Amino acid sequence: MQYERTAKEALELGNPLFVDLRSEGEYREATIPGAVNLPVLKNEERDHVGKVYVQESTDRAKELAVAYMAPKLPSYYNFLSQASQSREVVLFCARGGMRSHILFDFLRGLGHKVFYLKGGYKGYRKMVRQTLPELVAERDFVVLNGLTGVGKTEILLELKERGANILDLEGLAHHKGSLLGSIGESAQPSQKMFESLLLDELLKLPPGPIFVESESNKIGKLEVPVYLRRRYGSSPHQVLITAPMEGRVERLLKDYTVAEGPEKEERDREILEALASLSRHMGKRPAFELSQWILEGRYEEVARELMVRYYDKNYAVRKGGYLLQLEHTDTEEVAARLLQLGEGISKS
To answer: Residue 90, SS3?
Structure first.
């Protein structure tokens, strides 16, 4: 088909706009990064059509699907006709079946240039599983190691500002990767969506080394793909970041606490919920004591105690093999040193 595209071909279009025609529930679970959702069948409608398909007939299910779709056509048509003037619209459903064919045929019949994703979202997922490991294997990683609070993410973001390639795994995962990691973050994506976001990031990055923070096998509920972890774990470009305790405490307070205002109570509640799980690591009495300190507003003491008695004991940092060791007291200075390292790697 002239306007049929595989997932890889669709991603290579000049300015694609992926349009997810699946239900809002399917879209929320995982989609192609940047896709907009125009559900041919909403959650309840999809369930109804599925029951009719099983209990009655294919023809009756098709009739019902068209009936549900018809009222949506004017608004969908207006949106897609406008979008197709400046972007390559790529329609997809779950497997490239009825839902995407209905709208594709409708728009093509009216003379609009739209594309159809071969294999639908299932075909896209197959491409992610094949392509993501290949992209990871092709890249060199400069890996930032260090204890909690030394400011690895802060350094990564400064490197990004200066034009360096970074892969912010915690940012993509919506989790800071620690006991308090979910605080202040939106809900984590699904594992499928996390992998799609990883692919999307790697496809955007130009040639050259990629700066990444050393993560364990999980960030919150999400698994870091084994091949990615092995790749940056075995990289010869390991950097150790250190920082004075005062700086680490200050960063923890900045990341997790709210000094005043309507959000303070909610933030304190989130911290107390996280601290409740500490008893199995620190014992019931110390965990209870930290919770009391939060209620008393003694945040700095809590942060310091967490560093000494929990984080530094439970979050391992590799023993050696570092190409460079940097103390983080000035983010711009550390970033400048790392950029020099990256330039050297690119030339070698």
So the answer is: strand
Are 209 and 180 in contact, with CB atoms under 8 Å apart? no
Best CA proximity match to 259, nearest among 296, 299, 229: 299
295 pLDDT higher than 70: yes
Structure tokens at 262: 């309507």
pTM to 2 decimals? 0.91
Confidence check: pLDDT of 133 > 60: yes
CB 323, CB 341: distance < 8 Å: yes
From the list 203, 11, 195, 199, the residue with the least C-alpha distance to 92 is: 11
Q: Residue holding tokens 């802060």?
A: 154
Q: Which of 35, 61, 93, 197 is catalytic?
A: 93
Query: Is residue 179 annotated as a catalytic residue, yes or no?
Result: no
The 3-state secondary structure of 213-254, one letter per residue: ECCCCEECCEECCHHHHHHHHCCCCEEEEECCHHHHHHHHHH
pLDDT 10s digits, 206-244:
999 999 999 989 999 999 999 999 999 999 999 999 999
CA angle 202, 206, 152 (to 5 degrees): 65
